[in-house]
Design brief:
Layout (H helix, E strand, L loop, with lengths): L1 H21 L20 H26 L15 H8 L20
Helix pairs in contact: 1-2
Length: about 110
């Protein structure tokens, strides 16, 4: 289920990018292409629709991101390691470390 939510987040993000790129901060953008008087949606309605779509996609991304936390698999047991590093640390047997002894002749240390 987490994968489905992740894919939906990516799709919504791509759509949001496209909608933002359609907009023009000076009031042009896609709305300037619909300047004919006999179209279905007027210029003001087109910009309102794009603005509502932008806000809607942003809200969808926020909701999906927050809800994806519910689908992340968590372990409640303290005995189960959470990462590979913790697994490797737990697999190493605990052995006391003896200090290295120097060879009287000044050579390599003897274990």
């Amino acid at each position: 289920m987490y994968a489905v939510v992740s894919v939906l987040i990516v799709i919504a993000a791509i759509l949001l990018i496209l909608v933002v790129l359609i907009q023009n901060p000076k009031g042009g953008g896609i709305a300037s292409n619909f300047s004919a008087g006999n179209n279905i949606m007027g210029v003001k309605r087109t910009t309102d629709f794009i603005e509502k779509l932008t806000w809607g996609l942003a809200i969808v991304i926020i909701v999906l991101t927050l809800s994806s936390n519910a689908f992340v698999g968590t372990t409640s047991s303290d005995d189960v390691p959470e990462s590979n590093m913790e697994q490797q640390i737990q697999d190493v047997p605990a052995q006391p470390v003896a200090p290295a002894q120097q060879d009287p002749a000044g050579g390599q240390p003897n274990p």
